[in-house]
Every structure is written in C-alpha cells, then in structure tokens.
Amino acid sequence: MSETSTTPAGATLTVTEVVVPGKVEPSGLRLVRRTLSAPAAGQALVRVESTAVSAAESAMRRGRYYGQPAFPFVPGYDLVGIVEAVGPGVDATLVGRRVAALTKVGGWATAVLLTAADLVQVPDGIGADEAETMVVNGLTAYQILHRSAKVQAGQTVLVLGASGGVGTILSQLARHAGARVLGTASPRHHDALRAMGVEPIDYRVPDLAARVRELSPGGVDAVFDHLGGESVPVSYGLLNRTGTLVCYSIASKVDETGPILPGFLRLLGKLALWEYLPTRRHASFYNVWAGAGKPGTAKRTAFQERTRTDLTYLFGLLREGVVNAKIAARFPLTEVAAALELNESSARTALGKIILVP
After folding, report:
1. Which has the closest alpha carbon to 271: 286, 252, 260, 258?
2. For residue 7, is it within any domain?
3. Which domain holds residue 181?
4. Does residue 199 sit in helix, strand or coil?
5. Confidence class for position 347, pLDDT limits 50, 70, 90
6. Both 168 and 249 in a single domain?
7. What's the pLDDT at 260?
8. What pLDDT does 332 receive?
9. What share of the chain is helix, strand, coil (3-state, %, to 5)?
10. Is residue 6 one of the residues assigned to a domain?
11. Closest CA to 75 of 45, 50, 52
12. Tens of pLDDT along 303-344?
C-alpha cells in the first residue's frame, strides 16, 4: 500500500497498481509497485479511497472495449479519494479534500496523478464508497434519463438490468422524476426492486415483449438498454409512438471472440437509421465521454463543467437520502480477481456496485 497520508509537496511516492498485461482471466491480473512523481503544473496527487469494478473493466481484460489502451495498462474507470498534494497553478485548498474523478483507466491504484480540473469535490457527510457509486454509474444514469431521454413525470420507462450498478441508480432517479419504472432482473432481486418502487420482470421470461405489453399496452416512453446485440430491436419495438431508446453498453458482446468494432458499428448504424426514420421515435447510443474534446480545449472545459454540475447534483440527492447507494460487495484491491469474477458471474447475489478499497 502507499504511504500517501504524509506525502510532502515535491516528494516521490511508491504506489501499488493493478495491471492487466494482456487478454487474461481475472487471475492473470498483476499487482505492481512503482514510483509516482510529484504533481506537475495543473495536477493533483490523489490517494485513492474507493474505486470499483464494472462491465468496462471486464470488457477491457478481454480486449473488447472500444477505445481501450494497448496492453499492458492499469484499469479503473473512476475513483474517489483524498487530495494529498497539488502542482503549480492548482488551488492549494484542495489538499485534504475528498474528490471524485472519471478516469476511464488508471483508477485501480493506491494513488494517482490527475488533472486537477477533472476533480469534483465530494460534499461532507458522504462516504467514499457511497460517492463512488455515483461517479460513472450515477452520471450515466442521470444523463441518459434527463439529457438523452428527457423523461417526465407520468411516463413509463423500462430499465434493462435494473439490479446493476447503473440500473439501481437509474431506477431511483426515474422514480424521483415521477416516472413509472419497469425493470428486468433475476427473481432474487425482485423484492429489493419493489422496495425502490420498481415493477420487476424476470429477465429470463421467454417473451419479454409480451410481458412488457401486458404491463404497458401502449408501449413505454423510454427503454434503457445495456445489452446491445439482439436485445436492441426488441427494445425499440417496445416504444410507444413517441418513445426513446437509449443504448449505453454492449454487455451481451463481451463474452464473444470476434472483433468488437464491426458489431459496434452495426449497432450505431441501426440506431442512426431509426433516428432518421420519419417517425416520432428516437434512438441513440450514450457515451459518458461524448463531447469531451482534447485537454485544454473549450470542449474539454464544457465537458468538465457538465460533469461537475451533474455529479454535484447527484451527490446532493445522495446526501439528502433521495437516492441510496447500492453496494453489492467490497473487496480489497489485492483481491481484484475475486471482485472481477463476482462481477462476471451470473450468480451475483447482491444489488449495485462492486467496490475496490485500496
């Protein structure tokens, strides 16, 4: 583990990182120690308190996440931690503050160097693990609900994978917005979903479309689909005349062995065709990094501001108890293989996010 709690400005630091060396099983991940330099201009050194496992890392270890870096690299899509030191040009009052950050990669470590402008302060009264559930998952849920689908009170939405990291937050946010929520999940999670105000549907039901039509005969106002592949036409067919389909992952393709890009491009093409058909329905693919631009550009600044605005709002809902953090399990960083195996298992027994604690 790192000795970050007393790191003086300008000092180097030894950190532990999880490295994925190539296309490996979870047991093939490596723990590596290396020296981290002091923060440069515009950077902050963050001691990681909480990071997490998601479908993205599961895809990356298989080489099936579009846009991932070349092997070897350190996974970790997001994190929460304490700022230990800052470089020149960074507000010194950040030191000692708990912050959150989207990273895409690099978060599975005991400490990281990050661009200070990418950090979002976590309000007092919110624990690191609870805040971690709101970063990529919360942002995704909030933005697909309100920025993509623009769901309104009184509408009916269908959440595929309602028991997952995104699904649990999305369901709560939709209920908070006044929507009726139908959610697919394993029967073991149905009572928990009902407690959140969700009407559960067994994801293994032979005819999902027929079951949804029983519950919402005219179709639904929005479908949120994380599966991709064969699920997408079914999801589009469940919309009412003015409904919106938002795809935000291609989880059903992770276990396949062929190239990921052709299937992904086919999905984007299908969604684009549906979007431009002369109907009042809408279809799109959501990417949390869309519009981020290059560092130092106006696009990046706008992306940082949007991320900060949305995440700060989510933290407020969390602190007020409007949204509750759903944590499936916690693992030490050294047990990352077990965390990944649980994430990829069809026998997951708890709802929500799988947390890694450095």
Report:
1. 286
2. no
3. 136-285
4. strand
5. low
6. yes
7. 87
8. 98
9. 35, 25, 40
10. no
11. 52
12. 999 999 999 999 999 999 999 999 999 999 999 999 999 998
